[in-house]
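Late entry, evening session. Most of the bench is empty. Finally got around to the prediction I had been postponing all week. Sequence below, unchanged from the version circulated by S.P.
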Amino acid sequence: MVTSALAGEGKTFCAINLAISLALEVDRTVLLVDADVAKANVPRVLGLEADRGLMEVLLDRNVHLTDVLWKADIGKLAVLPVGGAHKHATELLGSEAMRGLLREMAERYRDRIIIFDSPPLLAASEAGALASQMGQIVMVVEAAKTSEAQIKEALGRIDAGRVAGLLLNKADGFSLEYGYGGYG
């Protein structure tokens, strides 16, 4: 799962780029799931016209995962759009239907890397419901914007043991000094 503390930190950008990067590897197949119900940007960024997706699979037993998957023209990348907005999105993402869908994805796509683009942790309750079911979480942090307090608050809303790392985004003029000096 790729998330952030706040909106606008670049989590969708990072999730899409991670998915594309992995999908372009010879032996990797990637499924990018847009789970940001309030701001579903993955289809728009990738140029897909999708009105059905994750929410419809969770709501209607007659809609199957294969009915709403899109094959992107990028490597071995497939996309599951979020679909239509729903007033009970938090409950749906934390539901038994979601757990069943995750089991189905894990069994059907054993060789596939699955990346979820999640809502921001401090902006939407859906992120916490989704995070409780994820194996690893990457939290995008915008340089010079997100405060340490906001990062700690966001991490406090999820199981910090699942956090694979923080990804610094939008750094401007940042340089690392390693201090190795010259080798001459």
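Two things to note before I forget:
The first helix runs from residue 11 to 23.
The radius of gyration is 17 Å.
Will write this up properly tomorrow.
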